[in-house]
Amino acid sequence: MALTDMMLAMLENSGVLALWQAASPWLALDERQLIFMMATPVFVAVALWEYLKIRHNPRLMDTREAIRNFALGAGYQVTELLFAGLVAFPVYALCYHYRILDLELNWLTAFLVFLGVDFCFYWMHRASHRMRWFWAAHVVHHSSERMNFSTAMRQNATNIFNGMWIFYLPLALLGFNPVWIGVAYAFSLVYQFFIHTTLVGRLPGWVETVFNTPSHHRVHHGRNPGYIDRNYGGTLIVWDRLFGSFVDADAKEPPEYGITRPVHSTNLIVLWTHEYVDLFRDMAQPGRLWSRLKHLWKPPEWQRPVMDKNNKDPGNRHEQTPPEAGRT
After folding, report:
1. Counting C-beta atoms within 10 Å of the first and last residue's C-beta, which end of the chain has fewer, N or C?
2. Residues 185, 61, 139: CA angle, nearest 5 degrees
3. Using an 8 Å Cβ cutoff, are 194 and 46 in contact?
């Protein structure tokens, strides 16, 4: 028996091959995470290049935070890879089974799925800022007070449980294969990695008009009153221009990065969960059930009316939440 045959026999007897055969369809469905994993060495290399450029400027780079950002991203990738098959894929499979159209993959449908994913990303991203339940997961991405490539990796391990993937379900119902949707989404996030930097200035006018660029995304990460909750686009900035959420960078007002209520912690668990803790604490305050539940879909800055002297919930009479007023 050849040595290679001996090695294959040992592998077959171990049971690992059977486990891989059971797991491989699951992993194949989540090609987006496989794309992220393959892109990670590129991300690390580009981040190291940027680090060498700005490492002496503490306003732009903190070594320990950069390492922590990659750790946050690793946690996100692990939970997505392990749980997407249990949480999201069955729902996508159901929608695709009852699809309206039978679409074949070609240049036209590839372009349409890219466009559809980017459109859905815009609304998912906007909801992630304007609905507190989604913001509870997204806040970790904005809580850094620095803007560099490592900030792009700053993601929440709870994303798969938070349900932001529901925004892409209409594409599967229309007839776009969920695997295509996942691949388009992955390439969109790969693109977005490269706009998290201060080293790239304004690009040519036509690029700034059509695409999301480092200049536009620096605005998005700013906590300046005029920059908060603007420029939600993924690959394209045209959605922001169409739906009134676009703001151009003002050279006289450079972005101040971070959130309006900074989180002074280096603990990964705290960074992932602090807004959930605050959300559920607010929901636990006395009041009618409906008023408590409103915290889930109201904007992050929304506060419930104070109970009156008879401990009665005044309901909607005093609710005032300025539209797109800002994140906490």
Report:
1. N
2. 45
3. yes
Give pLDDT, residue 118.
98
In Å, what is the CA distance from 142 to each residue of 111, 192, 264?
A: 30, 14, 13
- Nearest-angstrom CA–CA distance, 325 and 229: 8
What residues pair up with 222 in beta bridges, in sequence order?
257
Which value, in Å, is the radius of gyration of the alpha carbons in the chain? Answer: 22
**H or E element, residue 29:** helix 16-29
pTM for the structure as a whole = 0.86
Q: What are phi and psi of 211, to 5 degrees?
A: -105, 155
CA 106 from chain center: how many Å?
Answer: 28
Determine the pLDDT at residue 19: 65
Cα separation values, 276 from 36, 88, 139, 279, Å: 26, 21, 10, 5
- Mean pLDDT, each 10-residue run in order, the chain (328 residues): 70 66 58 78 94 94 95 91 84 94 95 98 98 97 96 95 96 94 93 96 96 98 96 98 96 94 93 96 94 95 71 43 47
With residue 16 as reference, give the H or E element that holds it: helix 16-29
The residue behind tokens 């070609």 is 106
Query: Hunting for tokens 């959420």 — which residue is that?
Result: 245
Cα separation, 168 vs 117, whole angstroms: 7
Query: Do the beta carbons of residue 131 and residue 32 sit within 8 Å?
Result: no
Q: Give pLDDT, residue 306.
A: 61
Burial of 129 (0-12, 13-18, 19+ CB in 10 A): buried
48-to-42, 147, 275 alpha-carbon distances in Å:
10, 14, 30
Residues in contact with 304: Cβ distance below 8 Å, sequence separation at least 6, in sequence order? 282, 285, 287, 291, 292, 294, 295
